[in-house]
Amino acid sequence: MFGKKSKDIPYSGGSVAGSITIAWETQFKEGNSMWKVPRLIRLNDNIVVREDETAVFFRDGKVLTYFDKPGRYALTDFNAPVVGELLKFFTGVQQQAEVYYIQRRVMDGKYGSTSPYQFMDPTFGIVNLRVFGEYRWKISDPGQFINQFVGTFNAVTSADVESRLRDQIVLLIYTTIGKIKENGIKVTDLPANLTNIEQAVLGLAPANFQQYGIEIEKLQGINISLPDDVQKAIDTRSEMSVLGVNYLQYQAGQAMVDASKNPNGFAGLGAGMGVGLGAGAGMGYAMSGPMMQGSQMQTKTCPKCGSAVPANSSFCPNCGNDIRTQGNQMIKCPKCGAEVPSGSKFCPECGNSLMAPSVVKCQKCGKEWPAGTKFCPECGEKL
User: Fold this and answer.
1) CA gap 102, 141 in Å, rounded
2) pLDDT tens across the length of the chain (383 residues)
3) Backbone dihedral region for residue 294 (phi beyond 0: left; psi -120 to 50: alpha; all else: beta)
4) 3-state secondary structure 169-207
5) N or C, where is the chain less crowded by C-beta within 10 Å?
6) For strand 98-103 and strand 107-112, is the pairing parallel, antiparallel, or unpaired?
7) Which of 157, 118, 187 is nearest to 32 (CA)?
8) Helix, strand, coil shares of the chain as percentages rounded to 5?
9) CA distance 141 to 20
10) d(CA 200, CA 192)
11) The model scores a pTM over 0.70
12) For residues 167 and 298, what is the distance between their CA atoms, to the nearest angstrom?
């Protein structure tokens, strides 16, 4: 009878009317989800089914039956539905069936988009996204699988099957991205939502893959590829957030770091920052200072604000003070007499303000007295 396990027909070779023993050899199974036996099944053929595979019999666009239990099966009945019936003895016309082996174990696959998804972002405009990653899947219904892929899609190789699976997974990912975009998520928020996207796709998978007799068990390593300019902007924003600075400060700091790599870069950079950027450049330098710690760059002190400045700078990037030769002249504090760098706002010795005039003149008698005197000692006039 059809489906009866054969113990007396040898595994190798044939015996009756050219019958053979058919098996999916192990060396050809690696990386393949499906294998079509290269000849039609015949009467008295033997079908060998192992633990991790199913043999499916297919004819006239539909699955007739399949064997999913391990063993060797001999087809011995002339009226077996798989082999067909003997229409007329003298004509020898007989219908025959195809056999497909399919894997029962879980398999790994990769997916990647061939065309981009256009994401409309309020900041960057239309951004072309591409996705790629890996997934795990298995055939849950052998009959449905062969009916769909062989009968409907005319697939004959594993590559045909996996190509359709890849396209379907990418479509589900694009659908998920479209839904979360409606909730106000920007393109810069996508990297932080990869896990949510994976879970959403897995939730949509059963309704989309059960019709093919397939189950998607896991989606992993999903990666959304952004254009280089958008990715650079996202990386910059992340660095700014970590450093706690705004864009102007970040740019100034980056300029200082770049200049430190060029022995002649600080002179021109310092002059430009001192004249053009002023306080903004100072904030940038203050931020970049920790980045340059440990380097061998020589510095000098600004006589006006006391900041450490590259030795070959002409202007202080913190206050814009001219720190060339004339910027290093010293003056005396009118209150305590200590020598103070010219341009200083306060005396480092006594704290006296150096921004006011050192003497005041009495408007009544014309005598001059030290700054800070409230009444003229000569005539008593209020100063």
Assistant:
1) 11
2) 333 333 333 333 444 456 789 999 887 788 889 999 988 887 778 889 999 999 998 888 888 888 899 999 887 654 344 444 433 333 344 556 789 999 999 999 999 998 999 998 888 888 899 999 999 999 999 999 999 999 999 998 889 999 999 999 999 999 999 998 888 888 888 888 999 999 999 999 999 999 999 999 999 889 988 888 777 777 777 777 677 776 667 677 777 777 776 655 444 444 444 434 444 444 444 444 444 443 445 777 777 777 777 777 776 777 667 776 444 566 778 788 887 777 677 777 777 777 656 667 888 888 887 777 777 878 878 87
3) left
4) HHHHHHHHHHHHHHCCCCHHHHHHHHHHHHHHHHHHHHH
5) N
6) unpaired
7) 157
8) 35, 25, 40
9) 28
10) 14
11) no
12) 59
Q: Which residues contact 360 (CB under 8 A, 6 or more apart)?
A: 368, 369, 370, 371, 373, 383
Query: Please, what sign has the CA dihedral across residues 155, 160, 162, 166?
Result: negative
Determine the pLDDT at residue 104.
92
Q: To 10 degrees, the CA torsion angle through 254, 260, 266, 271?
A: 20
Give the pair of three-digit tokens for residue 242.
Answer: 């970590």
User: Cα(176)–Cα(166) distance, rounded to whole angstroms?
Assistant: 15
- Please give the Cα distance from 83 to 97 (Å, whole number): 6
Tokens matching residue 192 = 């932080």
Pair 284, 258: CB distance under 8 Å: no
CA distance 345 to 263: 32
Q: List the structure tokens of 361.
A: 């003149």
Residue 79 pLDDT = 37
**Which residues in 289-303 are b (16+ Cβ under 10 Å) and which e?**
eeebeeeeeeeeebb
| CA distance linking residue 200 with residue 204, whole number of Å | 6
Contact at 8 Å (CB) between 57 and 40? no
Helix (H, G, I), strand (E, B) or coil at 363: coil
**153 close to 144: Cβ distance less than 8 angstroms:** no
- Give, in order, the Cα–Cα distances in Å from 39 to each of 20, 96, 107, 140: 10, 10, 26, 26
